Amino acid sequence: MEVNKTFVTTDDDQVYEPTLLQLFQALSDATRLDIVLCLLDPERGCLLKERYPIAKSTLSHHLKILREANILILHVNNNAYKYEVNTVYLRKHFPDIVGMLENYIKSNKELNSK
Which residue in 43, 23, 31 sits closest to 90, CA to CA? Predict the structure, then answer.
């Protein structure tokens, strides 16, 4: 299957606009979904390298897929890498997705507190 990519030009670079298919493909992996949930929930204190007992290259691959789907944003400051969920983009193009993920986090907290 070939995925059509629509390119969007920005001041910094040329990036493509992911499709709904790419969004769901990126979130269909349990590790990638957990990364997004972890980054959306500041109470979890998500340190990716420590949280996932997988090879660094595997974690990098998961993060790349999430960035390519425009789900994550990477901030680089010297040698420090910080990822955040691209909620602005997701709320604009897929408004229900962020709400669903936040509701999932909230309902899991309520279940765990009982």
Answer: 23
The reported pTM is 0.76
Q: Give bridge partners of residue 15 from the DSSP assignment.
A: 8
DSSP 71: S
CATH assignment at residue 17: 1.10.10.10
Question: Is 1 inside a domain boundary?
Answer: no
Find the DSSP H helices in 1-114.
20-27, 30-40, 48-51, 56-68, 87-93, 95-113
| Structural domain range at position 13 | 6-113
Q: How many CA atoms lie within 13 A of 55 on its CB side?
A: 3
What residues have CB less than 8 Å from 84, skipping those under 6 apart?
39, 72, 73, 75
In a domain, 87, yes or no: yes
Q: Which residue would you say has higher pLDDT here, 15 or 75? A: 75
